[in-house]
């Protein structure tokens, strides 16, 4: 019914059913995992009015007991979700529907899916640090590219006193490049905010 994906690893579809409406994936070497994707396989939909709360559990560094944190949810209408787990804090667990489960090995975490009503899912509050940035990858690439260009061009800056006359070279004042760069950043931020509010 469910799958779990971590970058650089094979897709996991071998969830362990620990109750009629509870499923768990074991996630080895979780310390080296930044994001996890949980998705429906498309073979069995949720019953009408139901969805899946997605939880993450890792061993508490002091007691070794599992600490569960709500990441978010998936539904028939939203059959997959990506969660950031690298920012979760140890020991900050909350209420969870998995009951008392045996602790996994020290470097093994668990991703759990609990089938619950959509009304119940709407009332739950996920851990804020699990949310993935909504800034799209093109904007991130563009910002990094422009930072790189500005830093590269600035590394060649010389003062007027250091300049030697060269009739084959054209010089552009660095203040002009900086002004363009700042205006571009403002336009990008405005475009992103406008697109975000139109969603």
Automatic annotation (TrEMBL):
Residues 6-130 form the Hikeshi-like N-terminal domain. GO terms for cellular component: cytosol; nucleus. Residues 137-190 form the Hikeshi-like C-terminal domain. GO terms for biological process: cellular response to heat; protein import into nucleus. InterPro entries: Hikeshi-like_C, Hikeshi-like_N, OPI10. It comes from the Eukaryota. GO terms for molecular function: Hsp70 protein binding; nuclear import signal receptor activity. Belongs to the OPI10 family. This is Protein Hikeshi. It comes from Cyprinodon variegatus. The lineage of its organism: Eukaryota, Metazoa, Chordata, Craniata, Vertebrata.
